[in-house]
Specification:
Elements: E1 6-11, E2 17-18, E3 34-39, E4 73-74, H1 79-85, E5 89-90, E6 94-99, H2 105-117, E7 123-127, H3 132-141, E8 149-153, H4 157-167, E9 171-175, H5 192-209, E10 212-217, H6 230-234, E11 237-243, E12 249-257, E13 265-271, E14 274-277, H7 281-285, E15 296-303, E16 306-318, E17 326-329, H8 333-347, E18 354-360, H9 372-384, E19 392-394, E20 397-398, E21 404-405, H10 410-419, E22 424-428, E23 441-445, H11 448-458
Parallel strand pairs: 6-10, 6-11, 7-8, 7-9, 9-10, 17-18, 19-22, 22-23
Antiparallel strand pairs: 1-2, 1-3, 4-5, 11-12, 12-13, 13-14, 15-16, 16-18, 20-21
Length: 459
């Protein structure tokens, strides 16, 4: 008599389990994401999975007795990559790097491990999609030292761990996790259960043997990581590699990092010789037109651990149809609508009958509120057709009552603006420096009305 196969129904978006199939996941609200997976007993290789990632039974310990030794890191030799990782690769950590096809994930990792291997650190590159000849051809095209990089074409995680027991690498690259399979799950590679079990198996090995693992992950059509949401919970660090709207540059963002800052950005330029670091991203996003135009304003964002100067443009035009459009590219469209309402109430500037288009130049995505004041000033500049000088910048959060709220790291933002040649800055009163800056004249404001008055004097 054959043994009955146990099955379960799992949402491939959030990982919620159900006793039977359903059309909608009640946990995350998504439709048609519940898939049937087969369950099987885990093999007793490389220790018991129930013993935890450490490979031994856990014991109760006082928090004060926990060892606080400094975590050892390995530098990749790529400054922007190390910045996003939080200062380098932590031994025993698992990093998931995702991105669209052609973004440069494999190229970036190949450049990083080539630098690491050149310093005598043992690295192993496991390819499940490309042939070893294709990877060797890429390394030759990029002119990378390849005599120290160990390669393996394999998709079985059990076999990969056996090879690692033999060659003892310190860095492992899995390209990609979606094509890996494990004996713990009987479904096809790429399914929810296979991706989850393969990632769990490799993570357990990494924690027990202190091997740092990079996993390459594919993305879906909505630019989210393919596979179960539990994949993001398993790994220590999750970074996404994407391109700007004009596809000239690549932006590496840390969405999760247990060893560093979340939201940290790294900037690269792609050419025939691979990914090149952009040392001064502010200059990249401030490539402004020679002739000043209305609706253009510069602001200072804070991304991770550094300031970033970007240009915000707005276009206010007469409504051509029945309903005026409100379109925002690079930041939340609902926030644009809220700022326009505050401008009407506390600035007495009405835009209800106008179409308004706002854009963050360079394809950068603004996630903080420090750009509120710059957005409003760009709208007013375009509406009144008044040109704001190139050496003036704005930053600050706007509240619903018209107050200008301070933002984090205001002094560092001002210093960065002064380095790039800006002469005047309109900032929240609480962010005004206590001592005058030699190259920058600061205009502190506490309300939107005060900022509009200063704007009238500047233009």
């Amino acid at each position: 008599m054959s043994k009955k196969i146990k099955t379960a129904f799992v949402c491939d978006q959030c990982g919620a389990d159900y006793p039977r199939w359903g059309g909608q996941c009640t946990s995350c609200g998504e439709w048609n994401t519940i898939k049937e997976v087969r369950l099987s007993a885990a093999p007793k290789e490389h220790g018991n999975r129930a013993m935890g990632y450490a490979g031994s039974i856990s014991t109760v310990k006082l928090l004060s007795d926990v060892d606080l030794a400094q975590t050892e890191r390995i530098l990749t030799g790529i400054t922007e990559f190390d910045r996003v990782l939080g200062g380098g690769i932590v031994l025993g950590s698992v990093v998931l790097i995702g991105g669209a096809p052609g973004a440069g994930k494999s190229t970036l990792l190949l450049q990083a491990i080539a630098n690491i291997a050149d310093r005598g650190i043992r690295v192993l590159y496991v390819s499940g999609e490309e042939s070893l000849q294709q990877i060797a051809e890429r390394a030759r095209r990029l002119k990378l030292p390849a005599n120290q990089i160990m390669m393996l074409a394999e998709t079985s995680v059990q076999r990969i761990c056996e090879v690692m027991d033999e060659v003892k690498p310190q860095i492992l690259v899995i390209d990609s996790i979606q094509v890996m399979h494990t004996q713990d799950a009987e479904s096809a590679p790429g399914s929810v259960s296979q991706v989850r079990e393969s990632a769990s198996y490799l993570t357990q090995y990494a924690k027990r043997q202190q091997v740092s693992i990079f996993m390459v992950g594919h993305v879906t059509k909505d630019q989210s990581l393919a596979g179960p949401m539990t994949l993001s919970h398993i790994v220590d660090t999750q970074v996404m590699l994407g391109s700007t709207d004009d596809a000239r540059y690549r932006v590496l963002r840390a969405d999760k990092n247990r060893f560093g800052s979340v939201g940290e950005l790294g900037f690269f330029a792609m050419d025939s010789s691979g990914l090149k670091e952009v040392k001064n991203p502010s200059a990249m996003f401030l490539n402004r037109a020679e002739t000043p135009a209305s609706g253009s304003v510069v602001t200072v964002l804070w991304e991770g651990t550094r300031p970033l100067l970007v240009e915000i443009q707005a276009l206010v035009t007469d409504c051509q149809y029945g309903n005026p459009r409100r379109l925002a590219v690079g930041f939340d469209q609902n926030r644009l609508a809220m700022l326009l309402a505050v401008l009407a109430r506390h600035g007495n500037i009405m835009t209800a009958q106008d179409e308004i288009y706002a854009n963050v130049v360079g394809g950068i995505k603004v996630s903080e509120t420090g750009s509120d004041l710059a957005i409003v000033m760009s709208v007013v500049s375009s509406l009144k057709n008044k040109v704001i000088p190139h050496d003036v910048l704005f930053f600050g959060e706007i509240g619903l009552s018209g107050e200008i709220r301070p933002v984090a790291n205001g002094h560092a933002r001002l210093n960065d603006a002064a380095k790039h040649g800006f002469k005047k800055a309109v900032v929240p009163k609480a962010n005004a420096p206590k001592q005058k800056l030699a190259q920058l004249q600061v205009y502190p404001v506490s309300t939107l009305a005060e900022a509009l008055d200063i704007l009238g004097d500047l233009v």
